[in-house]
Amino acid sequence: MKENQKRWLTPVEFEEEFAICVETQKKMRSEKRIPYSKIGRKFVRYDRLKIDQWFEEHEVVGYEQ
Fewest Cβ atoms closer than 10 Å to its Cβ: which of 15, 46, 48, 63? Predict the structure, then answer.
């Protein structure tokens, strides 16, 4: 994580940074496919450290030709 980056992202901030729309995020959360935290019943936040780890674990390595 870079020094000037926020650790906790809202769904809109997550969409702006990673280009995964809010509706897709909602579907991924309901299917438990993406890490997130929920504050009360309303507020969803993404921990950048866990998201970075999640991306690394779901990396698809292409074939060299």
Answer: 63
In the chain, the number of structural domains is 1
Q: Which one, of 13, 3, 4, lies nearest residue 46 by Cα? A: 13
- CB count within 10 Å of CB 20 equals 15
Distance between CA atoms of 50 and 65, rounded to whole angstroms?
33
Amino acid (one-letter) located at 9: L
- d(CA 27, CA 35) in angstroms, rounded, equals 12
Whether 27 is in a domain gets the answer yes
User: The tokens of 50 are what?
Assistant: 């866990």
pLDDT tens digits in sequence order for the chain, 65 residues long = 677 889 999 999 999 999 999 999 999 999 999 999 999 999 999 999 999 999 999 888 876 66
**C-alpha span between 39 and 62 (Å, rounded):** 38
